[in-house]
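Materials and Methods. Structural model of AMP nucleosidase. The 492-residue sequence of AMP nucleosidase from Paracoccus haematequi was retrieved and submitted for structure prediction as follows.
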Amino acid sequence: MDTDSRYLPVESPDAPGRRQFTDADAAVAQLQDLYAQSTGFLLDRFTKALEGDKPAARFRAYYPELRLTVPTHPSVDSRLSFGHVVSPGSYSATVTRPDLFGNYLREQIALLMRNHGVPVTVGISDTPMPVHFAVAAQSELAVPQEGVLDFSLRDVFDVPDLNTMNDDIVNGVAGPMADGSLHLAAFTAQRIDYSLARLHHYTATAAEHFQNFVLFTNYQFYVDEFEAFGRRALADPSLGYDSFVAPGNQQIFEADAPLAALAKMPQMPAYHLKRANGQGITLVNIGVGPSNAKTATDHIAVLRPHAWLMVGHCAGLRNSQRLGDFVLAHAYLREDHVLDADLPVWVPLPTLSEVQVALQEAVAEVTQLEGYELKRIMRTGTVATIDNRNWELRDTPIHRLSLSRAVALDMESATIAANGFRFRVPYGTLLCVSDKPLHGELKLPGMATDFYRTQVASHLLIGIRAMEKLREMPLERIHSRKLRSFHETAFL
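The predicted structure was written out as tokens:
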């Protein structure tokens, strides 16, 4: 533009006054109205700009905000790990996509009002909404790259701001808000919007399809078996699953409905076996490596899943192990390094008894083994995660593995567990031994064909059964106090 954007008039939608609510449904409805007003305003101005209506103003809309004020030191059930604040004060959170997070927001708001006996306040925040996120949420339009329009997008609209798009809250280094209020939620609205966009890019499915229980794997074999299981589940209404979603947002409701192969698969394709209220199971094939594991969990965490588990292949490190044996991680050796800056290696990753028991019981059910016989095919122990696929070629890692008493090695599990700990998402790992490099059984073409054919189906079924067991637990049991820090946000 010829005109300096600093001197353009700023045009914004009319902001209604803040309102107090004692009903969670009404509070969420107001959040939805305010969000629709902001996104609708930006989308309208953006569409006109695309049609050639050269802007003569700077257009700005704001995220809605949820606020809570607790005047006295709270007296709540000490067993609670979420749904309350730890000290008197004013707490706030910017909110995005209240349509997507409606059930979650209703649940969390109701807990706050019940535990503290105070209303919540809903209004407009002072955090601008980037036009990229408003457009992505409301239409199929895409924000063009610089140079396509005859004006600079940044001169007319707000764009994503790294100052509000970080992990300072979950990392425990965020100070109070500019107005002095403390954080009510683990993520800001911009951080959530950023991850929702990234999820669609990496998995080729919309955030709406993700379920509350997430399985991660590192091999396509598990994807094939998950689709087969999903089709069987759709054929049996008693199991409670109602649809299956594949990359490209392809959704089927019948067991024999076709799914088209995409011309170009995403980097980390996701598949969703859906159930009412998001209580189904999502499987994400993250591929190989801790970087992918971090990327996937960084973004899925904003959806606040109830649990995530790694079910993939690993190298068995003990001579007594056989191909196809299972490893239930009860500790992690973090040699992956991708989270060192966010979660130092001296931070222990505790095993979560609810997850461990669910996995062990699932193994017993699927294999029909128990007691001492179960030990024959499953070993608990330390799982090492490393960032070097050719670790076998170096002596030092092998010595470190021996010192740690590790029983298995992969490139993803500790990363997923560490991000589960960091983001307060219950986590677990059940791996299947696919090779034993230290004992002459390398993963070479043709060597593992029988293993893949016989073990993948049962391994995936164990993961699914474990998730079903976790789904049957009360939320306050799954989201335990083990993952909560000294001064925790109220939202789980």
